[in-house]
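Table S4 entry, Haem-binding uptake Tiki superfamily ChaN domain-containing protein.
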Amino acid sequence: MKILIALLITINSYASITSIYSTRDGSYLSFNQLLEELPKSGFVVLGEFHNTKSIQEAQARIIKEKAILENKQSSTRIMWEFLNHTDQEKINESFNFLLSRSISTEEFVTKVAGKQNLAYIPIMEVAKEFGNAPIALNLPRELKKKVMNEGIGSIDPIFVPAHHYVGGEDYLTRFKLAMGGHAPDDMVAKYFLAQCLTDSVMSDEANKNHLNLSFIIAGSFHTDFFDGTVSRLREINSSEIISLKITSKELYDEEFIIGSDLFGQYADFILITQ
């Protein structure tokens, strides 16, 4: 059964989004129906494939139109995996330059995240329109590398959330598969520890900076199957959390729609972009 072909025929196109599927009731939705399904307040987790233009354009439209629908532009927070929370003051300073038109959105993204991440300009344009600086969720690479080489006790405890834990067997199994299934166990353990610390830190920063309606932009491996960052966030925040997996036609796998035999459904909603 060619699910992708069928849904492209039956579902209208919304900008770069060609189809929206709800795993909760097994139905296809319009873009406006999706907006109504998302929480009026709480968290919307936008699990993504990085640096894919159509995906970041879709994320920007979801954030903008949902915030406008709920009239919550001023209290909407855009939270981004690619930024280190230790740099938040510098990010805020650069964002003020963006608001004052001293720099362009392209220059802002280049300054805070690197030129390789210019696909995120549409999302930062929404942040600019709302007047809210993006919230940094991650830890610097050098701290995670230190954890990998010397253990979690090697870094200042202020960087390790109180609720941190190493993920379960399903997450570890997925992680091993993502690494190719051939890496030595000691190497897998080191990288997995850094992965789980990232999940803990991102959920912690999201929780601390949440006001009303928050959008978390993170790689889908951190959010697939309601695991990783999503599972940790649910432990520390009682707000509604809805998870999306956003893919493109080129990256699409039919399993995204039907779910995994081993791990279940990927997210509450699956979006496919041009």
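The mean pLDDT is 94.
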